[in-house]
């Protein structure tokens, strides 16, 4: 019997550091929503399937900063409080609907009450409140493969130096090893953003007349992102389809955000390339690290609310909510239906549609891979994990039903990306252009006139920190210096999160994002100044040390952070 072609769902789970930085509408409730609607449902559905089979063929990325929050000792009480509030809100809704003799809506409210109560019982139950540890056990059972991401989701091609990009990667690998007991084989590049080797003038501060002598990052040679990955033992990553096959970028966010539709004009198609996205390739001149491309057909079918499954009339509508509790009681009805025209949600009808869509998706996979033999072909369907459950409530059930159909046997074998490479390798080589999975295929979602100032500030901070580490690296035996330098590094990493530029661009939470990144810049500068004073032998006052403690409490992550490693490898050849 010929070896079957392979398929993997590749899910990217990430939220920026929101713990200790507000609750609602912007703050830790983002994390609570994702945990209740996505992470726990996905874990439950995958865990329920580990008894009958070992390999489910799902590749799950858990960003280091997300892991640090889910495993933080302060998080369980936050989540429990959130769930109790949602239970109470559902109970209030049920009473209001019952008083109005709207028994069908009262039944939906009771359903929400059961949903959040069972989530609370699960979270407090025998599997434990550390969701990271739960996913670790799934990987140890051979059911899934867990991959990493940039430490705080820093947008690697736009960071000022290879030292800055590598610090994101090496911190990610170390954090992954601590949480999962093994080094990651793969990585989801933040925003699937890639840059090949070559000369690099900063697009953020380039201006008419060229660069001046005071610019923190003058033009210089950079290594390809794949070389940074290889230096830390990473074997593969993922890119959007147009970087491999050419053609029109799929885009990711314009369907949901008007601001991106206005910012990024209709994409022009790049010239087709001879490569396809149904196989793995080794990347660049070193050909050590491999890449997989996002498959267009499966992506649109699952991602798009306008053309894909989530826009089905029967599914729970994301946008229409009953306030003040925020529960949802209405169906999509039509992707373009006015809020007033939404009809009540019918869970049984939605469940039937989920099964039908799972059947359709498997047929789509089979037709896309028709005729594939020899085991060298693989499709990867790449999504933000939060699509499943948060944006598309029925998404976890859909994914689980697709997995059921694939593991039952047939023409397609579910395999994680790492397992596929281990078995088949990547015979062909590809030279990737620069780009991302953002709309337009480039960097514009994250680098535009509304965000340019953030990159100027980041590049200044990166240059300052690299100089600081150069002075402090050889110093030892000074506990206060260690604390200062480590927290300075944390603030730089937190400021680098691509989430801030995204939220500014989309206007979704612009004020919050600007406040957050400015605060990290301010804390970075304060701590860098204190570190420099400590190096110079100047005293640090009790008030300043208390301020350090406050910042450490607010932004305590990456406890084993090796700040001395910043720039130590010196991979880049400076011009």
Automatic annotation (TrEMBL):
A GO molecular function held by the record = 1,4-alpha-glucan branching enzyme activity
Give start and end of each 1,4-alpha-glucan branching enzyme C-terminal domain. Answer: 458-566
Note the Pfam families from the entry: BE_C, Glyco_hydro_57
Record-linked InterPro entries: 57_glycoside_trans_central, BE_C, Branching_enz_MT3115-like, Glyco_hydro/deAcase_b/a-brl, Glyco_hydro_38_N_sf, Glyco_hydro_57/38_cen_sf, Glyco_hydro_57_N
Active site as annotated: 191 (nucleophile), 384 (proton donor)
Q: Which GO terms describe its biological process?
A: alpha-glucan biosynthetic process
Tell me which UniProt keywords the record has, alphabetically: Carbohydrate metabolism
Which Gene3D superfamilies does this chain map to?
Families 57/38 glycoside transferase, middle domain, Glycoside hydrolase 38, N terminal domain
Domain (Glycoside hydrolase family 57 N-terminal): give its ranges. Answer: 8-432
The residues listed in the UniProt record as binding substrate, with positions renumbered to this chain, are 294, 311, 437, 499
Q: Name one GO cellular component term.
A: extracellular region
Stated family: Belongs to the glycosyl hydrolase 57 family.
Tell me the protein's name.
Answer: DUF1957 domain-containing protein
Which organism does this sequence originate in?
Eiseniibacteriota bacterium
């Amino acid at each position: 019997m010929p070896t079957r072609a392979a398929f993997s769902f590749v899910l990217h789970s990430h939220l920026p550091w929101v713990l200790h930085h507000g609750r609602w509408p912007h703050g830790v409730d983002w994390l609570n929503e994702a945990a209740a609607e996505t992470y726990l449902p996905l874990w439950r559905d995958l865990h329920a399937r580990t008894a009958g089979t070992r390999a489910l063929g799902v590749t799950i990325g858990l960003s280091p900063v997300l892991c640090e929050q889910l495993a933080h000792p302060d998080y369980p009480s936050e989540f429990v409080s959130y769930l109790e509030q949602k239970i109470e809100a559902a109970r209030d809704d049920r009473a209001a609907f019952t008083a109005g003799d709207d028994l069908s809506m009262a039944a939906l409210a009771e359903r929400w009450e059961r949903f959040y109560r069972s989530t609370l019982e699960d979270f407090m139950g025998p599997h434990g409140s550390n969701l990271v540890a739960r996913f670790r056990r799934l990987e140890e059972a051979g059911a899934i493969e867990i991959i990493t991401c940039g430490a705080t989701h820093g947008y690697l091609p736009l960071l000022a130096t290879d030292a800055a990009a590598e610090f994101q990667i090496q911190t990610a690998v170390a954090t992954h090893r601590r949480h999962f007991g093994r080094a990651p084989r793969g990585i989801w590049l933040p925003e699937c953003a890639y840059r090949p080797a070559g000369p690099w003038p900063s697009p953020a501060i380039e201006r008419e007349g060229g660069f001046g002598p005071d610019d923190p990052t003058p033009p210089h040679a950079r290594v390809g992102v794949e070389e940074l990955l290889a230096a830390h033992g990473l074997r593969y990553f993922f890119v959007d389809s147009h970087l491999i096959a050419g053609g029109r970028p799929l885009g990711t966010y314009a369907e949901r955000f008007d601001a991106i539709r206005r910012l990024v004009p209709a994409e022009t198609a790049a010239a087709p390339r001879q490569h396809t996205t149904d196989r793995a390739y080794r990347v660049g001149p070193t050909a050590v690290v491999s890449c997989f491309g996002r498959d267009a057909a499966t992506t649109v079918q699952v991602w798009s609310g306008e053309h894909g499954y989530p826009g089905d009339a029967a599914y729970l509508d994301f946008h229409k909510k009953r306030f003040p509790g925020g529960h949802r009681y209405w169906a999509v009805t039509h992707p373009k239906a006015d809020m007033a025209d939404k009809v009540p949600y019918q869970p049984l009808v939605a469940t039937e549609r989920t099964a039908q869509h799972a059947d359709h998706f498997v047929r789509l996979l089979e037709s896309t891979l028709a005729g594939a033999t020899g085991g060298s072909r693989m499709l990867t369907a790449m999504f933000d994990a939060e699509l499943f459950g948060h944006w598309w409530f029925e998404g976890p059930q859909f994914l689980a039903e697709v997995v059921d159909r694939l593991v039952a046997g047939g023409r397609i074998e579910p395999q994680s990306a790492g397992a596929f490479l281990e078995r088949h390798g990547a015979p062909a080589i590809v030279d990737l252009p620069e780009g991302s999975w953002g709309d337009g295929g480039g960097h514009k979602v994250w680098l535009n006139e509304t965000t340019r100032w953030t990159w100027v500030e980041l590049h200044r901070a990166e240059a300052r920190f690299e100089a600081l580490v150069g002075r402090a690296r050889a110093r030892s035996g000074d506990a206060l210096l260690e604390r200062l330098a480590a927290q300075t590094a944390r603030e730089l990493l937190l400021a680098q999160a691509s989430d801030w530029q995204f939220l500014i661009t989309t206007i979704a939470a612009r004020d919050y994002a600007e406040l957050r990144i400015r605060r990290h810049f301010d804390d970075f500068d304060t701590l860098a100044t204190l570190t420099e004073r400590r190096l110079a032998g100047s005293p640090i006052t009790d008030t300043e040390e208390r301020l350090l403690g406050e910042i450490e409490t607010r932004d305590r992550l990456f406890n084993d952070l090796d700040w001395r490693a910043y720039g130590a490898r010196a991979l880049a050849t400076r011009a």
